[in-house]
Amino acid sequence: MGKILEINGPLVKLELPQTVLGEQVRVGRLGLVGEVISRDGNTALAQLYEDTAGLCPGEEAEGLGWPLSVELGPGLLGGIFDGVQRPLQAMWEQSGDRIARGVAVASLPRDRRWHFVPDPGRRAGMPLFGGEVLGTVQETESIQHRILVPPQVQGELLELAPEGEHTVEDVIGRVRLADGRIEKLHLFHRWPVRTPRPFRQRDHAVAPLITGQRILDTFYPLLKGGKAAIPGPFGAGKTMLQHQVARWCNAQIVIYVGCGERGNELTDVLESMPTLTDPHTGRPLMERTLLVANTSNMPVVAREASIYVGITLAEYFRDQGYDVVMVADSTSRWAEALREVAGRLGQMPVEEGYPAYLGSRLAAFYERAGRVETLAGDHGSVTLIGAVSPPGGDFSEPVTSHTKEIIQTFWALSKELADARHYPAVDWLESFSGYVSSAAKWWADNIDPGWEAARAAALDLLAASEELQRIVNLVGVEALSSEQRWTLEAASLIKEGLLQQAATDEVDSFASPEKQFALLTALLDIHRQGMKLVKLGAPARRLIQMPLLAQARRWKSQHSSDDLEALKAKIAAIPAAFEPLLLEYAPAAPSSAMEEIRP
Amino acid sequence: MKNIEFRTAASAQGGLVVMAGVPGVAAGSRVQLRDHAGRVRSGLVIRSANDAVLVEVFEGTDALDLERTWVRFLEEPYKLPVSRDMLGRVFNGSGRPCDGRPPVISADRRDINGEPLNPAARAYPREFIQTGISAIDGMNSLTRGQKLPIFSGGGLPHNRVAAQIVRQAKLLGEEAAEFVVVFAAFGASHADARFFQESFEESGVLNKVVMFLNLADEPVIERLLTPRAALTAAEYLAFDLDYHVLVVMTDMTAYAEALREVAVLRGDVPARKGYPGYLYSDLAELYERAGRIKNRRGSITMIPVLSMPSDDITHPIPDLTGYITEGQIVLGRELSNQGVYPPVTVLPSLSRLMKDGIGKNFTREDHPRVASQLFASYAKALEVRGLAAIIGAEELSDADRRTLAFADAFERRFINQSEDEDRSIHETLNLAWDLLSMLPPESLIRVSEEELAKYHKGAA
Ligand SMILES: Nc1ncnc2c1ncn2[C@@H]1O[C@H](COP(=O)(O)OP(=O)(O)O)[C@@H](O)[C@H]1O
Ligand SMILES: [Mg+2]
Q1: Tell me, what's the pLDDT at A590?
Q2: For ligand 1, atom 8, which residue shows the shortest CA distance?
Q3: Which residues does chain B have with pLDDT short of 70?
Q4: E runs forming strands in A194-252
Q5: Which residue of A has its CA nearest to B441?
């Protein structure tokens, strides 16, 4: 037993001779929990996950003998946990609206029984390896929870429970380890959050994560197992974009980590997810979602932990062979928590108060994303999407700039777009994706071989219009040639008819890859047809007045992803809309547009 | 220990006192210091070890004679006695009555730091509050339980806007305001405080207002307590007594500056512009006390007022605030100079909860799209205005000239209104359509074709 020597904010100096770094401690009458972050002889410094007010020097402290760990087993999905995996729903029911200190509630429900079905291949006497599947529990209608052998366990399976109802704590099997000890197996096991879970090997990421957001999927794709960042000033749409991804992406499991952000945003997820349907499985979205929440008013040390709790949960589902997406809102708050503790430890700040290890911590965290071959020989992935909240919206600040070097997909949000309520406010010039060629292969195989070229054409058009806009801002639009004015108009059509996609638009909130591609090629077709006319001498003014342009801007909101036939009919009629002008400006030549619509 | 006076002050500097030889003092505990003149100051334990206890003194450590300073540790955090009788009363910045009337008697004394609300206990705010101000209701609407600050600058009419909101705020279909108001001023001038007091008086709500005043000439460190005391009162009124509480706090910049002052004294590592890295968490502890709770009737709607140093929205105080609050109403000097009241610059303004509290079952079906269209058209119009400034208005095309006329009308007729003008949301939306009708229907693609047909005055 040790005791408290000094209390300084969330840091507590303890007399605790035998402790090791990272060990969990429980201190004081209130039984507050924390972890040891430095040691010096018989004294140790611990950071506590809860507010330290009321603690007195001299009160007792004890080491718990393990590092910060999470419970992994059935009962996670649909739940909301705090930064150290306490179940917030259960805590609300037990201790009321406010989070009282020192409340200890098991992460997984202890009384709930699960229907366990042993893996038919497992027999007593067979060798058993860490990470293998012992059996399954149908946790929600859409997700089968695979019960895994804890990664460090290896030996001979002595017995395995038959099919039946079990609580997470029931012994469902026994293993004889190499040293002869007998290890009991349960429906759950614990894993220390700061240690990445092991796998056989890394795999190449191959398939894009379909989010249903055109600016993401079509322009700056992310792969399953990839790493992405969403930087942007406040109000630019980081959270909404993450909500959109969490809602509509084609991952099997979604881990939403609210790290130092608003309480109401988690409430929003909790209230909306159960009412929404997964477009890929038709099941309520909450069945595949779990939340980790350390809101901005919750203690800051647990904020630092919450990111690791989230990623460990993600790895655990990956190890079951699932494609997992973790969104973290916001990694900046995590970095700030790191900074706060570093400051109290008196560590030398290097940039804007951040400690020197900020970059390496960030990199190590993102490194836990990836597509892997699991210990059981399956394939699973963790895709990581972190929001970044740069002070003053300045992307050159430390967290944004370090992150930018680590990730492959960068969805940069722009204040100007957000101010004009162009959502998602993803800046098409600042953003990038290192995954375009891999994604192109998938689009070519599954949607259309023309995807990569069409994407490039649209981006070229946007870049060209940016140049032209600069000229317009200097001398006015009248100075442009008809060709240039048509380019501007077509780019604006792409922006409004394709890139802009309101999360609140019920029809267009999610767009399937087919719809994305149909709209993309349709708008490019309008551009091409118009350009042909301009080259024939038609003034851009005439083209810009065509009702088709206003109509095409509305198509996205008129046709949902499962009503593409009507959209395709409108697209097929594009050439006809140009027909009168074509007759006017190329009366002698036989109409090429007519040829195109001829069967 | 509560009754023992220690005379072991070892050092004192700029608001901090180190006490030696006082073992076992609880962190965060309240402290009372009696100086040689018999004056009592109050403080807080911010670091505690057996050999040295660090105390932050709210009234400062000026003229403190260490040999003749007696210190008592009260063994509890700062608490506020709460009761219904707070309504109509005025308290100082640390929660003691200062209206010459007797103290509020209550056995119910609450830790002013509050406790974090469990996110699972929150109910999402969805009820539209009509403020009668078009720029807010139409484009940045407020919902019950939201925290929506006013970003302003020296000399701008933020106080008048806040007071107008307090006067006019009501739920749709409701006759009069059924709010009670908690008003907290820190670092505010006497004139500002008087302005609010008189405005509450005029609208006859003074008996429904609780005031906490720490004015510009009062102790700086006490400002760290003022919003906490006020929010403790608000929480009690909302979640114990079922009131809908409107909290107005001014000025958050004075609060943050006080925090910086203390941080410097403590030697905390500064992050940006000398503000401590924990400014974000500290502000969040205040702002996140707004909201609604499941199974409770009351609510806390918060309107903090914040003056942006040098009108700079990227300054740490507005920046971190914007990262926490559910939007912001930004007042602009340019509009104000042109005589527009309220000078709301709509583009950088935002209400994050608007999308869930307007539209079909809340205000009017077309509201979300009309708002979006106004933003888009006005943003476009500002571009044209910028262009006109360069190439001259004569060079503009007809279409551009129409757009310019729209921008002017939008500012003069939609944003601009008088201080006692209380527009219903229908009036606001109809006005919006009047203005949108100045633009050709085919340029309005954010509203639906049906809405164009129904509301656009020039539609075929
Ligand atoms: N994709 C979107 N569709 C519609 N509205 C959006 C979208 N993204 C952002 N918004 C609007 O902008 C507001 C701020 O977005 P949010 O994601 O909360 O910003 P951030 O997290 O960057 O501060 C939202 O409340 C919403 O009104
Ligand atoms: Mg956000």
Answers
A1: 52
A2: A237
A3: 175-177, 459-460
A4: 201-203, 227-231
A5: A550
- For chain B, the domain total comes to 3
Tokens of A319: 């190890």
pLDDT of residue A597: 45
Q: How far apart are CA A552 and CA A558, in angstroms?
A: 10
In chain A, whose CA is at the least distance from the CA of B349? A419
- Quick count: other Cβ atoms within 10 Å of Cβ B125? 26
Residue A591 pLDDT exceeds 80: no
The whole domain housing B45 covers: 9-77
Q: A236: CA distance to ligand 1 center in Å?
A: 6
B336 assigned to some structural domain: yes
Q: How far is the CA of B323 from the centre of ligand 2 (A)?
A: 7
Provide the percentage of residues in chain A whose pLDDT is more than 70: 98
Q: Does A181 share its domain with A222?
A: no
Query: Does B4 fall in a domain?
Result: no
Cβ of A80 less than 6 Å from ligand 1:
no
State the pLDDT at residue A474. 84
Q: What ipTM was reported for this prediction?
A: 0.94
C-alpha pair distances (Å), A552 with each of A240, A497, A525, A527, A597: 26, 7, 11, 12, 18
Task: For residue A502, give the ligand 1 atom closest to its CA.
Answer: 3
Q: Are strands B30-34 and A354-355 parallel, antiparallel or unpaired?
A: unpaired
Atom of ligand 1 nearest to the CA of A241: 1
Is there a contact between A473 and B387 if contact means CB atoms under 8 Å apart?
yes
- Confidence (pLDDT) at A419: 94
CATH number assigned to the domain comprising residue A374: 3.40.50.300
d(CA A214, CA A219): 7
| Domain span at A391 | 205-436
A176-226 residue pLDDT tens:
999 999 999 999 999 999 999 999 999 998 899 999 999 999 999 999 999
Q: What pTM value is reported for the model?
A: 0.95
Quickly count: other Cβ atoms within 10 Å of residue A437's Cβ.
10
